Prior knowledge:
The chain is about 30% helix and about 30% strand. By secondary structure, the protein is of the alpha+beta class. Helix 4 (about 105-120) links the parallel strand 5 and strand 6. Helix 1 (about 20-25) crosses helix 3 (about 45-55). Bound molecules: coenzyme A.
Amino acid sequence: MIVTLETKRLILRPWKEEDAENLYELAKDERIGPSAGWPPHKSVSESKEIIKSRFFEDITFAVCKKETGEIMGCIGISLSKNSDLCASEAEAEIGYWIGFPYWGNGYIPEAAAELIRYCFEELKLQKIWCRYFDGNEKSKRVQEKCGFVYYRTVHGVPCNLLGELKTEHISQLTLNEWRKTHEKQN
Ligand SMILES: CC(C)(COP(=O)(O)OP(=O)(O)OC[C@H]1O[C@@H](n2cnc3c(N)ncnc32)[C@H](O)[C@@H]1OP(=O)(O)O)[C@@H](O)C(=O)NCCC(=O)NCCS
């Protein structure tokens, strides 16, 4: 059972099977999935299967606009057992996307800031990993805005869902680094 989180403009809540149609509308767009490592959704029933199989696993939230409740995107963490970047159970990997109509409003940095706080303060994690494919400058910017620090680049990484080899840039945020920036802001 995952919690619901709240920011100034957003509600981050668990996905429901009934969200499949809204998910499909956003995730059928070719500008979204391939940048994040998965193919565009092909039908509402595929979106429903993905909600049941992937979004109910780990900790995955629908990113909703507070004013209207509409679903705009998705953010979540893979726990250590599901991420090859994690060296212990005190680590997790964050992933995110937002539908094209909503790009450029700072929604994902706002959602990520709250999820990061939740990971460090409530789940008591020590480190959060993040990655983006070479050329995805938009995701790189999100990671910079959230305080992630470049760690390393890996070439020829198999991306199974796309059937391609990719170059990945990996970054990390440790609890200590997060505390330093967080204390400055508050
Ligand atoms: C990456 C992504 C999550 C950013 O979310 P967002 O809420 O739009 O984040 P921001 O508003 O902070 O925008 C981030 C950067 O995207 C770029 N950007 C924003 N709107 C844009 C648009 N309409 N067209 C092109 N680039 C745009 C800007 O460079 C911006 O940085 P800036 O604020 O310094 O100018 C979103 O673009 C997305 O879902 N992309 C496809 C999936 C993906 O790449 N997921 C991440 C996989 S690692």
